[in-house]
Design a protein that fits this description.
484 residues; Aspartate Aminotransferase, domain 1; Aspartate Aminotransferase, domain 2; seven-stranded mixed sheet; 16 helices; 38% helix
Length: 484
């Protein structure tokens, strides 16, 4: 076995919480199968343990007067460099900025900055499949926003429709500030051709902002394009550290220096100035210092850097192959279940996807199906619309109308949802097999499983036997007493 594959096998079994046990409805305690990485990944244990060793030297940054401060500065700079290297961004052209609440903070920063820097371009084009975080900030900062649909129809939507994008760019001529697009959907895992999108946008004077939150844990992404002349390079990339096996780490923005060099910082405080007087102050010209006011999340940044280092050592091609094998198996087995609908084009030869699958089982509400999978099989999945309402609505409405043409609007909204299984580095083909086995079992005994639940006042589902008090698993005061 090659080195990368050996390391991948080791890392698959090296996550906090991977072996956590819960009691199922039947009383049996089993280890959970975590299939919710698209929402937030488990912590990669070796990376976190390596970052904890840094705490022996921990100090604040912004000083070189003692050994610990020097080491903290070096490690914080190292974390920035790891990010730039991971996304193949030239440090002379791009800067890496760490900031608050995941990619949401980074996207809001980009939207405000580019809107202020290019007021003559009041519009933005947004792909239909965006998470709300890469949609709403652009709507709020620009005069108008237009959504670009996907190739395909109904449940079989593929990537962004490049012809529709070209038409919209031509229609608005030079009024588009940028195109906002996810590198991979958080609902279906469908991968967008970001460099093709960049080339078309640049030809019309527009920039490209890529949300890479859903792809960086699964396959390689490069800021540099394929053509080689810079025409298809990416202008800005954002992602969340907690979606790449580093919970508690900051959000990340990688952006061309030239796009924010002339503008004012968005946050003010310590560390982003050179001089402060009673009546004036001078903002530093150094990146990323001018964009990172205050004491940064140093430990979180170091942890993220360690994760990126490990993934580089494994090789993103090895990780992609690992996930592709699981994905092919899942598509083949799930499509053999008559009542299963998988959303998004499943032809991997035409539409590349990450190992994220959203689906429904006929006759079982999406919320109920997620509850059954948790209560009886200890499979941790998510349901509803995954903060991507327009995209989910596009795929599911026609399906609902086909099933029931007389469906009321209120009923449509209550039924509008899916169940999502999202696989990561912590998962193996055995986890995919557990999901398939569970779905086949539920499909076989559908009526019985449905009869075991009551609809709750909040619209969810409660088992007839009731729910388990979470304090039986994790009580803060008890945990604290155990370590004191």
């Amino acid at each position: 076995m090659k080195t990368g594959h050996k390391l991948l096998t080791r890392m698959c079994n090296s996550f906090y919480g991977a072996a956590t046990t819960y009691r199922q409805i039947d009383g049996e305690f089993t280890a959970r199968t975590y299939l919710d990485s698209a929402a937030s990944c488990l912590m990669l244990k070796p990376a976190y343990e390596a970052s904890l060793k840094f705490l022996d030297h921990y100090s604040n940054t912004h000083s070189d007067t003692h050994n610990s401060a020097i080491i903290s500065n070096q490690m914080y700079k190292w974390a920035h460099a790891q990010v730039l290297q991971f996304v193949n961004a030239d440090p002379e052209e791009y800067t890496c900025i760490f900031m608050g609440s995941g990619s949401t903070a980074a996207i809001n920063r980009v939207a405000r900055s580019l809107s202020a820097a290019r007021p003559e371009k009041p519009g933005v084009l947004i792909s239909l499949m965006e998470h709300h975080s890469n949609d709403l900030p652009h709507r709020e900062t620009h005069d108008f926003a237009e959504h670009i649909g996907c190739v395909g129809e109904g449940v079989d939507l593929g990537s962004m429709d490049l012809d529709a994008l070209e038409a919209a760019l031509s229609k608005h001529h030079d009024k588009i500030d940028y195109v906002a697009v996810t590198a991979a959907s958080n609902v279906t895992g469908v991968v967008n051709p970001i460099h093709d999108i960049a080339q078309r946008a640049h030809a019309h004077g527009a920039l490209v902002v890529v949300d890479a939150s859903q792809i960086l844990a699964h396959r390689a992404l490069s800021m540099q394009g394929i053509v080689g002349d810079g025409s298809d390079d990416i202008d800005a990339v954002v992602f969340s550290g907690h979606k790449i096996y580093a919970p508690g780490s900051p959000g990340v923005l990688v952006i061309r220096r030239s796009l924010i060099d002339g503008g004012a910082p968005m946050e003010f405080g310590g560390g982003m100035v050179d001089q402060v007087f009673k009546t004036e102050y001078t903002v530093t010209t150094k990146f990323p210092d001018r964009e990172e006011a205050g004491t940064p999340n140093i430990l979180g940044a170091v942890n993220l850097g360690m994760c990126l280092d490990i993934m580089t050592r494994i090789g993103m091609d090895v990780i992609e192959q690992h996930e592709s094998e699981m994905l092919s198996y899942l598509f083949n087995e799930m499509q053999s279940i008559a009542g299963i609908t998988i959303y998004g084009d499943t032809d991997l030869s035409l539409v590349p996807r990450t190992a994220t699958i959203s689906f429904n089982l006929a006759g079982v509400d999406h919320g109920l199906l997620a509850a059954i999978l948790n209560d009886y099989f200890n499979l941790a999945l998510r349901n509803e619309c995954f903060c991507a309402h327009p995209y989910v609505r596009e795929m599911i409405l026609q399906q609902l109308w086909d099933l029931d043409p007389d469906l009321e609007e209120a009923e449509i909204e209550s039924k509008k949802g899916m169940v999502r299984a999202s696989f990561g580095l912590n998962n193996s083909i055995d986890d995919a097999h557990r999901l398939v086995t569970a779905l086949k079992e539920i499909d076989t005994r559908k009526d019985w499983y449905v009869s075991q639940y009551l609809r709750s006042e909040d619209g969810g589902f409660k088992h007839l036997k009731g729910s388990i008090d979470w304090n039986t698993y994790f009580c803060p005061s008890t945990v604290l007493e155990s370590v004191l």
